[in-house]
């Protein structure tokens, strides 16, 4: 058992006892301190991993929401185009039905090609477009 003297600035010399108990208590304190340091390091690493995982999950969710928004916009455009095509198809089907009607074809031929029925006389009247063209020619 040895005595070790410590000097403090404000007090006289104090002797500390260096026996087995004191040494075992000091070792125990050092182990506890080392344990606290290791625990702090492990918690720090775990915290960093959790932070990285959170960032990764957040960016993935953001990218997926952007992708979903783009696909929804594309879907809306496609539905609008489909609606347009369906309208055009309905018009074309109606035109097909009309072209299968002989009376409609006769009216169309009379109108477009100036054909006449028996006993009809065809008179042509000038159109507005035709009048405008004549006015332009006169002005030149």
UniProtKB/TrEMBL annotation:
Keywords for this entry?
Cell cycle, Cell division, Coiled coil, Membrane, Transmembrane, Transmembrane helix
Q: Which InterPro entries match?
A: DivIC (IPR039076), FtsL/DivIC (IPR007060)
Q: Where are the transmembrane segments?
A: 39-58
Keyword field contains Ribosomal protein: no
**Please, which domain of life does this record's source organism belong to?**
Bacteria
Q: Name one GO biological process term.
A: cell division
Coiled-coil residues: 68-102
Q: What is the name of this protein?
A: Cell division protein DivIC
